């Protein structure tokens, strides 16, 4: 019996020692586990931060590439101003805005006079230089951010002038014409005198208005300007000379919308 009792006491002592050891080790094990979780959490946060930064950089690069593609797709490669496709989109938007706000919208078509002669006398590369310089000059003369110049085709340009009546469109086009006529454009080894003709049309858009409607009337005025000797600005319908002289020093409706 004594041996059995001693064996039992030994087992109890061992069990007690084991339990005591577990009690002593448990906080340390919990601390180690907690430290490990904290380390994993920190590593996960760093990984997430790195991936987030990489994603932000990728999105920024994608946005910049999309912006570049948008610019390239809407810009005329030769002249550097907006192209015909952008003209169609912008003109349609401005017609809708004119109809909605009941404000006049003006379209001006400008054409470089005797451009074929430039190509014939100096070559097509010289003609390209003239188109670039005329486009840049027209762009520099637009004072409002809402005004837009587009290359309409060949040596022809279009001005979209929101909140501008017929007289205002005439004054903008006439200022461009006069200033350009006074310049000499450096082309190759030459100083060329270049003039333009322009046709203007302005109206408050209605339900029947369209891009073709505005272009038709502006082109009609441009045709008359070319047929009447070039280097002039005409409107459709024509503005009386008396009104032009009377309003020459007055502010027309060409203000910031």
Overall description:
It is a single chain. The chain is an alpha+beta fold and 257 residues long. The protein has two domains: 1-74; 84-246, Alpha-Beta Plaits (2-Layer Sandwich), CATH 3.30.70. It is built from seven helices and seven strands, in the order H-H-E-H-H-E-E-H-E-E-E-H-E-H. The strands form two sheets. It has a five-stranded mixed sheet, sandwiched between helices. Strands 4-5 form a two-stranded antiparallel sheet. A hairpin with a 2-residue loop joins strand 4 and strand 5 (190-192). The radius of gyration is 38 Å and the shape is elongated.
Throw out a few tags for this protein:
257 residues, alpha+beta, Alpha-Beta Plaits, 2 domains, five-stranded mixed beta sheet, two-stranded antiparallel ribbon, 7 strands, 61% helix, elongated
How much helicity do the residues have?
Answer: 55-70%
CATH architecture of the largest domain: 2-Layer Sandwich
Q: Find the CATH superfamily of the largest domain.
A: Reverse transcriptase/Diguanylate cyclase domain
Query: Reading side by side through the largest sheet, how are the strands ordered?
Result: 2-3-1-6-7
What name does CATH use for the topology of the largest domain? Alpha-Beta Plaits
In total, how many domains does the architecture comprise?
2
Question: How many runs of DSSP E, i.e. beta strands?
Answer: 7
Number of helices: 7
> Outline, from the CA principal axes?
elongated
> Nearest-angstrom radius of gyration?
38 Å
The helix-and-strand class reads: alpha+beta
Largest sheet: 5 strands, mixed
> For the terminal residues, how far apart are their CA atoms?
111 Å
Q: Kindly estimate the percentage of residues that lie in beta strands according to DSSP.
A: 15-25%
Extract low-pLDDT stretches: none
């Amino acid at each position: 019996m004594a041996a059995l009792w001693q064996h039992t006491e030994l087992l109890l002592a061992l069990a007690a020692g084991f339990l005591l050891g577990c009690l002593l080790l448990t906080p340390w094990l919990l601390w180690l586990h907690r430290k490990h979780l904290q380390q994993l959490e920190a590593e996960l946060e760093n990984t997430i931060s790195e991936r987030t930064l990489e994603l932000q950089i990728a999105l920024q690069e994608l946005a910049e590439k999309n912006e570049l593609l948008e610019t390239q797709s809407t810009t005329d490669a030769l002249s550097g101003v907006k192209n015909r496709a952008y003209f169609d989109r912008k003109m349609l938007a401005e017609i809708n805005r004119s109809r909605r706000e009941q404000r006049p919208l003006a379209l001006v078509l400008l054409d470089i006079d005797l451009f074929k002669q430039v190509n014939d006398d100096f070559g097509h590369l010289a003609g390209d230089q003239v188109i670039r310089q005329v486009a840049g000059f027209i762009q520099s003369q637009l004072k409002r951010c809402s005004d837009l110049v587009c290359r309409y085709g060949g040596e022809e340009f279009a001005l979209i002038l929101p909140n501008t009546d017929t007289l205002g469109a005439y004054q903008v086009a006439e200022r461009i014409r006069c200033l350009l006529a006074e310049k000499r454009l450096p082309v190759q080894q030459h100083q060329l005198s270049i003039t333009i003709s322009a046709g203007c049309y302005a109206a408050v858009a209605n339900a029947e208005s369209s891009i073709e409607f505005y272009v038709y009337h502006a082109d009609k005025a441009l045709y008359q300007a070319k047929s009447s000797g070039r280097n002039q600005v005409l409107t459709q319908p024509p503005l009386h000379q008396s009104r032009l002289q009377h309003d020459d020093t007055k502010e027309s409706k060409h203000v910031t919308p």
